[in-house]
Amino acid sequence: MARATLFYRDKGVLPDGGIVEITIWRLPKSDSERPHGLKYSLYYGKGGKRLIGYDNERGKGDHRHIMDREEAYAFVSEEKLIADFMTDVRKMRNEA
Q1: I want to staple 18 with a disulfide (CB 3.0 to 4.6 A). Which of 7, 14, 59, 64 is the partner?
Q2: Full-model pTM
Q3: How many CB atoms lie within 10 A of CB 61?
Q4: How many H-runs (helices) and E-runs (strands) does the chain carry?
């Protein structure tokens, strides 16, 4: 059976201790839950608490977490996914 291959990974620690981590895997084939053929996890947190997260775990589809709120996310492309995530991070950090 074919395995997922790492497409993109980056992790950074910000001066205030915040962590930004992005991991995107290319799946061997797309399916109804992941028609774009990707599995991803984008995380921004501080002090061990997730503040923003984008992911597409099985059974939930593409969605994002902003603090304690979870909402659907309309996936367009890898580039837009990362751009939308970083926009949310900048807004939360009052850098927008």
Answers
A1: 14
A2: 0.92
A3: 15
A4: 1, 6
Q: Where are the domains of the chain?
A: 5-92
Whole-angstrom Cα Rg for the chain: 14
pLDDT digits (tens, 9 = 90+) for 64-96: 999 999 999 999 999 999 999 999 999 999 975
| pLDDT at res. 45 | 98
Q: Which two tokens stand for residue 71?
A: 């909402």
Are the CB atoms for 44 and 92 separated by under 8 Å?
A: yes
pLDDT of residue 1: 67
The whole-angstrom separation of Cα 20 and Cα 38 is: 19
Q: Which is nearest to 88 in space by CA: 61, 64, 63, 60?
A: 64
Residue 25 corresponds to which tokens in the numbers above?
Answer: 């895997």
